[in-house]
Amino acid sequence: MGMKGITVVCVVLLWSCFHGGFAEKEEEDVKVTVAGVTSIAEIDDDFICATIDWWPSDKCDYNQCPWELAGLFNLDLQNTLLHNAIKAFSSMRIRIGGSLQDQIIYKVGYAIHGCPHMKKVKKGGLFGFSQGCLTMQRWDEVNNLINQTGALLTFGLNALYGKNKPEPPPNGGNITWTGDWDPQNARDLIEYTVSKGYKIDSYELGNELCGEGVSARIEAKQYAKDLLKLRGMVKEIYKKAGAKMPKIMGPAGFYDKKWFDTFLEAAGPQSVDRLTHHTYNLGPGVDPKLIYKVQDPYFLSQIAQTYKDVSESIKLFGPWASAWIGEAGGAYNSGGKNMSHTFANGFWYLDQLGMSATFNHKVFCRQSLIGGNYGLLNTSTFTPNPDYYSALLWDRLMGNKVLAATQNVSPYLRVYSHCSKKKPGISILIINMSNTTCFRIKVQNDMNLHPTEADINEEEGAREEYHLSPGDGDIQSEKVYLNGHLLSVTEGLQIPEMKPKLVDPSSDIVVAPQSFLFALLRDFKAPTCMS
Q: Active-site residue 28, yes or no?
């Protein structure tokens, strides 16, 4: 496309912003400065991660049961759309774990004689459910999914196996489980896994047992002892098999500075490869204010302190480790019924992807891939929800190196920048949370704060823009449009192509109210992206 054709595209975008439903809206000019000399953080290639949970179909919250057949025991692992949705990513990470993982036993080896079916109980179990059992037939099916889709697998192990469960404290609160972890059942599973040649990227010990815990807890020094036992066992098994050792991760819970610092100090150097923590910063899924929270930049920014504190804990007590968001669903208890699977949730999701990356978090695991109200895929049909497409664009455009991007016009305009993933230049994510303002954006290099026409190199190609907007202008729609075209799976159950608009690189970037935009700026000279 020549520059003349590109200019026409730009005019169309301007018209759609100010006349296509936004005639009465405001317009504001913004200068965004991107520092390209050095990066401020780095993410992994497989930054995008999603979880598969253990919840059975009768997991219910707020008079609804949104998990249906999406838990690991029931999920159709042969579903064509599920496979295609995973394969669309360069390398999606799947984390299998969740609230019930610490009462899952593995039907393998001589130590396990029965194989209990998980069911609801009034007392004795965690989160109102009894023990469950993973058969090796089901484990084979899980690994077939991983092998066929090219995904990376993080598997959460039962950290309470063999421990003592005291009586509940008289004044309430969560029970502190005591004693050493019994690794035998995990050993049998891992030895079986190695014998079958299955590739596990990482093992994670326990789920939400740190700090005050959620339903149960373990003291930090005891958890350190248990994790070192796991590391030694995994090292032994994989060394004997001549296979590459998976990473060891934990503690997979909510950040508590004292607990995390104590754990890292007690575990010592090279003990844990990835320090994982969870966030549900939007509060309960039943909160009627969820729709306002996801568009409130002041509220969304509060979690930044946690990201910073986790990074500080690593710097002071565990510099050999790196930080991961091991599970984040926005709203807890299966998410918000009318919000978490809609376009509106992208204000939270994309903002958290961008924000956590700036604090050097290497991976962000979304709760969930499928299941609950917050799945990237629809629980019943497996069709992608709006956040799926946002995650896919991130995966394709945002490279490893994170750049500082700043603007001082509006808090409702979020801007994040990375080196481009596969092409020259940089990629930018812009989130417009305002429902009244259309922003015209000029991106400037901090090495050249006053660009001239001579600085625009048209030969290096047009700017690629990916505008995401909600169906019918309703941010609580389950439909999402890319550059004005509805995104939907093909008749052959393939993920649709996601083609950019090609725009004159000298023109402003125009972002409509309540929309998201990814842009690839090929002519942006960032020295750190060239090394």
A: no
